[in-house]
Input
Amino acid sequence: MKYFFFLLLLFISVFGFSQKSKLDFKSIEKSLADPQSPYNYEKLIFKYKAYPKSLDSIEARYLYYGRSFKNDKISTSDEDFKNLADAFKDKKFDDCISLGKVLYEKDPTNLDVLLILLRAYDSKQDGSNFIHHLNQFRLLTDAIKGSGDGKSEKTAYNVNSVGDEYILLNILNIGEEYTRGSKSSKNGMIDIWEKDDNKIYIKVLYLNF
Output
């Protein structure tokens, strides 16, 4: 398997249909914690791990944005993630996979971890694990793309972190020729990426209820 195949699949994903509706973060938080809710976290994460294609766009939205309410998230500043990133930089893909599996079990919807695992499995030509994690990755990034159209502050794409913002920028093919401006907003910070007359609005969420 070649890396261009991975990029092609992501490119196709950009044009996939996603239902866009206003996000209700309090409802997401409540539903994820409710054992009786169809959007209970344990129910969703089971489907996500076993067969990600079985989740619909609403379930994906709850799962992606629900990560904001988890206490056991992996941060890029954590030592374990730094070790994973170093292994990836050194092209030690066996180490990437072993370290990445551990972090995936702790924080299965972490896009940074998923992306490194994808690159590692691609380099090892492990098609089965590559496709499985790619389906998860696309599910979560489609949830981001379904959160808005990026054309205004009110319809900005919503992301959980700055790292997720840069992953989205890569998928949307927003490169270095764009300049960034920022402004504070309720529950987050809005970044405006601008090139000529083209503007992309992305809201980095800082949820604190």
Notes: The chain has two domains: 25-145, 157-205. Residues 157-205 form one domain. Strands lie at 157-159, 179-185, 188-195, 198-205.
